[in-house]
Structure formats: C-alpha cells, structure tokens
Design goal:
Layout: E1 3-4, E2 10-11, H1 14-17, H2 29-34, E3 40-44, E4 47-52, E5 55-61, E6 71-74, H3 81-84, E7 92-93, E8 106-109, H4 115-127
C-alpha cells in the first residue's frame, strides 16, 4: 500500500524499505556443496568471491559479457595447472584477465558440457583441503604517507 507523505507525494510501500534485496548468487549449488566449511562470500570485480577461512578458493561469475568467462573461477597458481588439468579437462585461463595469457586464476566454463560435475569436483577437492585450490590474499597496499611541502628556507610544516 502506498502512503502520502507530509508533502503530499506518494511514498513507496513499507515492504520496499523492509530490507535490501540481495543479488542472486550465480551457481549457488557451489555454496551448498561447500556449506560444511562455512564459506563466506564477498563481491569482487562484479563476481562473487568465495572464501573458506582466510583463503579465497573460488569466484562465481554469470555476466552478460564476455560470456566465455562465466562459470566457476578457481583460485590457483600456474604451478598447479598441469596437475589440475586431468581432473578438469575444460579448465582454461580467464580471457578477461588477459587474452592468450596464462593466469593463476582458471575458469570452469559454464557452457562446458561437464560444468556442474567439474564445479562439484572442485568443491570436493576444497572440502578435502587440496592445496592446489585456494590462495591467501595479500595484504592491501597502504598509501604512502604524504610528504610535507618544503617551506622557503628548507623547513617543513610541523
């Protein structure tokens, strides 16, 4: 029901203000598979980053473009790619991070025929504590303190 405010304008219904609507999490079945570990999600570059403890393990993406990068992103390093490839034949580097370049992050593409099976396999490896998936993010860089401007005569501001 809409109400009139003191100014006479129509005010939106109270249910609009009841709570912020959460955006849908893409590939939510992944979070269900990781539920025993208590995953935490955070927004990251328009995706949903998935953390287990202090490690980022996955990112979930479903955006209009570029579509080939939609799916489940694995947080890994280049040294683990060869060992992971037999388990995830459709795994590849993420195009949006550099076309043709090998990146630490790898994607299990949503349009691959084995997508759900591969994503659930990745979740099983994470639950088993596989060291090939997951990274502890580095500390954020802090800004360097601003230098004080030199005053005439070589003095600086207090």
């Amino acid at each position: 029901m809409t109400k009139r405010s003191r100014s006479g304008r129509l005010a939106p219904a109270d249910e609009v203000f009841a709570g912020r609507k959460r955006k849908l999490v893409p590939h939510e079945f992944v979070l269900e598979a990781l539920a025993p570990l208590g995953p935490v999600t955070r927004p990251m570059f328009g995706c949903v980053a998935v953390y287990v403890g202090d490690r980022i393990v996955l990112a979930l993406r479903d955006k209009p473009a570029p579509e080939p990068d939609n799916g489940v992103w694995l947080a890994t390093t280049e040294e683990h790619h060869a060992a992971l490839r037999p388990e995830f034949p459709s795994m590849r580097s993420i195009e949006v991070l550099g076309r043709g370049e090998v990146t630490g992050w790898q994607v299990l593409p949503a349009d691959a025929p084995d997508f759900e099976e591969a994503a659930l396999r990745a979740c099983a490896l994470i639950r088993a504590g596989d060291p090939r998936i997951g990274k502890v993010p580095g500390e954020r860089r802090r800004r360097a303190p601003r230098r004080e401007a030199a005053r005439p005569g070589g003095q600086t501001k207090p």
